[in-house]
Amino acid sequence: MTTILGINAYHADASASLLVDGQLSGAIEEERLNRVKHCTGFPSLAVAKVLEMGDVPLGELAHVAIGRDPKANFAAKLKHVALNPRLAKTATSRAKNASLIQDVPQSVMSALGANGPAPFKFHYVEHHRAHMASAFFCSPYDEAACLSIDGFGDFVSTMIAVGRGNKIEVLDQVHFPHSMGIFYQAMTQFLGFTRYGEEWKVMGLAPYGEPKYVEQLRQMVQTKPNGLFRLNLDYFLHDKQNVEMNWLDGSPSVGRLWSPKWEDLLGPTRHPDDDFYGKWADIARSAQVVYEEVLFHVLNTLHQRTGITNLCMAGGCALNSSANGKIFDQTPFKGLYIQPAAGDDGTAIGAGLYVQHAILGQPRDFIMDHAYTGPSYEQQEVEQAVVSTRDSDPALFEGIQVKQLDDDTLVTSVAKHMADGKVVGWFQGRMEYGPRAMGNRSIVADPRRGDMKDILNERIKRRETYRPFAPSILSERVGDVFETAEPSPYMLLVYKTREAWRDKIKAVNHINNTGRVQTVEKHLNPRYHALISAFEKETGVPVILNTSFNENEPVVNTPQEALNCFLRTRMDVLALGNTLLERTS
User: Fold this and answer.
1) CATH number where 153 lies
2) Residues 129 and 174 placed together within one structural domain of the fold
3) Are 397 and 424 members of one domain?
4) For residues 60 and 1, is the Cβ–Cβ distance under 8 A?
5) Phi-psi category of 350—alpha, beta or left, where left has phi over 0 and alpha has psi -120 to 50?
6) What percent of the chain has pLDDT over 70?
7) 270 neighbors 198 (Cβ within 8 angstroms)
8) Number of H helices and number of E strands within the chain?
């Protein structure tokens, strides 16, 4: 038996995965366990959890891989520091980060409560190779063009390659300080969204604006004839100042990335209390346009260089679903696979798979066709959470009716509740990996109601009013409702809504008549498929609104967390396994 523990540590979204004989046994982010959003540092809880889920004791763990290699691109790092002595503080911080990565074997031992020398073999996998492995080695393709694109990792922001069989051949890369992830993150900050990971807000705001600032923003980034790009560094600070970045513990944070020249070009930055629309939406739209221009330049040149029509993508920028949805129209690629955990959490899977195939030379026999890789809970655990909570504080359950239902009655009842305008917490099976809830840790509702977005924000989500909610649709019906019929199982592609359906699914049809689609396959998630089918039978609409099961926190993991979220919000119904809780008042 070959066992490989994959780790993402001292980077955003710390996480762990476990491969057993080439199959993904489990994967989970540390934030789901310690409840610290985008948690960085070492994923002690996640390491212990995936080994527990896979029933693999320390003595049977053969390999550990981390999606970082402090020695990678070392000459480029030295040259950059030599030319920029003002970055000494940043270099010292990165050296500390590298030393912690070198201590990961002992951190694994500590996470498992063990002492002495590590019994496993340890592997460093360069950050972007881990990203590409998380896409290509999870895909159904024997041959594919590969792109990894993000902020930075191991001094590189973008890497292009060809994957064939169990090998990945790197063709080219973009070094620090040039990065489209930094471009988009700086724009996110400039628009007043200063917490880590808020790029979604820019992407959601963009359709409300016009591309009035495209020419100005093109001054910040230029494409190159070789298919890559470079930033105009006059507009950025990360290459010339010691920008504070915390990757060591707690939630990650990044200091200001944009230089004063942004305000010379665009005017004063948006204050967080300012309205979102008008000029700010125009700037967001323009940033999205410029990002897409560079992305499609990279992709079209990658196709020209390889002649391959299958594409595999990973890296934080690969979560830009608005751009991803245009790949079939804007490039010659015919096949597309994007790692559902395309951000840094996915490198835990990629590092393990890179060791499995590129280092150990093992043949491929695994396709990641779903993201349900986290813990699941028995019905007995669900019922115990309800009973113990009710016994400890009976007042919490005033006006709440609790029922135990069989599978068919459960989905029928929930579908009727949604058709009646109720907001439902849906907690089933194994938790999802990556940033999207895909029908196991979801809040679901009727997409037909134009006021449903406001209802969800008022009662639970409390997020910006312009941000769209996503449609989950029966995979066999996607071409009927949207203009693209390609599968989109991970909610990573935005499709145009057909005109006849725009008024029928108002709550999930964005201002530009698009939806961030999740196609649901019966054989991959039969209970969620059954729920959407029951809703279609009730309403004639094969779509439901799906958003993550949380309230300004990481997605819920346990039955107790789901129950607590239900009780402290104004959710109407909770389907907790086969237990149904209904507010009657």
Assistant:
1) 3.30.420.40
2) no
3) yes
4) yes
5) alpha
6) 97
7) no
8) 20, 23
The domain of 387 spans 379-583
CA distance 2 to 87: 43
- Cα separation of 471 and 363, whole Å? 37
Q: Are residue 49 and residue 155 in the same domain, yes or no?
A: no
486 in a domain, yes or no? Answer: yes
- Rg of the chain's alpha carbons, rounded to an integer? 23
493-545: pLDDT as tens digits: 999 999 999 999 999 999 999 999 999 999 999 999 999 999 999 999 999 99
Residue type, 285: R
Residue 376, phi then psi, degrees to nearest 5: -125, 165
Element holding 189 (H helix, E strand): helix 180-190
Query: Which of 369, 351, 484 has its CA nearest to residue 9?
Result: 351
**Does one domain contain both 417 and 516?**
yes
Residue 304: exposure state from Cβ atoms within 10 A (0-12, 13-18, ≥19): exposed
Shared domain for 520 and 421, answered yes or no, is yes
Q: What are phi and psi of 126, to 5 degrees?
A: -50, 140
- Domain identity same for 126 and 257: no
Nearest to 145 by CA among 297, 330, 356, 307: 307
Burial of 375 (0-12, 13-18, 19+ CB in 10 A): middle
Q: Is residue 374 part of a domain?
A: no
Encoded amino acid at 505, one letter: I
Of the residues 83, 102, 133, which one is the last residue of a structural domain?
Answer: 133
Rounded-to-integer distance, Cα 423 and Cα 583, Å = 11
Beta partners for 148? 159, 314
What is the amino acid identity at position 256?
R
The answer to the question of residue 367 being in a domain is no
Structurally, how many domains does the chain consist of?
Answer: 3
Residue with tokens 């471009």: 183
Interatomic CA distance for residues 531 and 410, integer angstroms? 9
**Which carries the bigger pLDDT value, residue 171 or residue 274?**
171
Residue with tokens 């009730």: 538
Residue that terminates a domain, selected from 67, 102, 133: 133
Q: Do residues 196 and 253 make contact, with C-beta atoms less than 8 angstroms apart?
A: yes
> Could you give the 3-state DSSP secondary structure of residue 183?
helix
pTM exceeding 0.85 = yes
pLDDT digits over 331-353, tens only?
999 999 999 999 999 999 999 99
- Residue 451 has a CB neighbour count (10 Å cut-off) of 11
284 domain residue, yes or no? yes
Give how far the C-alpha of residue 40 lies from the chain's centroid of Cα atoms, to the nearest Å: 15
- Kindly tell me the burial class for residue 283, based on how many C-beta atoms sit within 10 Å of its own C-beta (0-12, 13-18, 19 or more): buried
Q: How far apart are CA 534 and CA 556, in angstroms?
A: 25
Q: Is 337 in the same domain as 387? A: no
What lies within 8 Å, CB to CB, of 46 at 6+ separation is 14, 15, 16, 28, 29, 30, 32, 33
Based on the domain organization, do 458 and 325 belong to the same domain?
Answer: no
Angle of helix 127-136 relative to helix 346-354, nearest 10 degrees, comes to 90
What tens digit of pLDDT does each residue of 70-120 get? 988 877 777 776 667 666 555 556 666 778 888 999 999 999 999 989 999
Handedness of CA 346, 351, 352, 357 (dihedral sign): positive
- Read off φ and ψ for residue 327, nearest 5 degrees: -60, -40
Supply 568's token pair: 């402290």
**Domain CATH code at residue 388:** 3.90.870.20
Cβ–Cβ < 8 Å for 257, 236: yes
